[in-house]
Amino acid sequence: MMNVLNKQKKHILASAIYSLFVLFVSTLSQATAQSSPTQTLPVPPNTVWLQDSLFIDKTEIANIHWAEYLQFIRKEVAQKRLTPAFYQTQTPDTSITVINGINRLHHPAYRWQPVVGISYGQALRFCEWRSIVASQVYNQTNPAPQGLYWQFTYRLPTTKEWEKAAAGGLDISLYPYGLTHLFAITTKKRVLMHPPTPLINYRDHKTKRFSLKKVASYEPNGLGIYQMIGNVAEMTATKGIAKGGSWRHRKAACKIRKSQRYFVPDNWVGFRCVCEVKLVDKAKHSTRETEVK
Q1: Residue 273: closest CA among 66, 88, 2
Q2: Which of 32, 120, 258, 289 has the fewest CB neighbours in a 10 Å radius?
Q3: In a 3-state reduction of DSSP, which class is residue 275?
Q4: Helix (H) or strand (E) holding 127
Q5: What is the pLDDT of residues 122-169, one digit of tens each?
């Protein structure tokens, strides 16, 4: 267990990481999604409302987000508040991220592709870090009522939460992929001459080639969420269980009810977060110990 942000360190957090997190919170908005309790709740960055006080990311976590996380750790290492060994434990598996000598995690051309090569434990630590940063940045510019504090708690979704988000408001017995159509519809080309473009990044019968799409590719589902199906299978709160299928799975395996087992980091497994938003007592929040376990 490693204490990342103890009581003595917290006073330096906001200034040290604000610039790192600016991309991650640039979309922060007070707008609401659907008819929901969000009229009284802040909407976490890049999310839509799912249920109660729970929001879900519009997109899978991308390389650029993980790079921000690593940059924060590097600064903490430079200040001797974290060790280089801890930094190494949070680095994705380079045997997966490095292809033809290019590390896709850091290369500008791949910054908006989903992060891969990470473990379940690394995803949990990222969620803890994101919870701390998002809460502090939001409260800096949007103070809660006196004596209270807006707490954003990010985590991996349960399978039930994930399936609700993937359904996009549709009946999945009729639309098992959460989409009303699986191919781009155009009147400009004859279907027989030019097969329609699929709207899911899955493995077809022609290729097994490693091919990831940017996290905001294709059309979002009915809730405004991108690529719940295909691209990368997404970790759930249950260790070893992913949902949604990936570029490496056949279309039938990508149905919402299906699950994928994983055991180690791989090039077809990624994740997105859900976020619980609530008001907490500021005094209790400021004195509690914050750890990455």
Answers
A1: 66
A2: 289
A3: strand
A4: helix 120-141
A5: 999 999 999 999 999 999 998 888 889 999 999 999 999 999 999 999
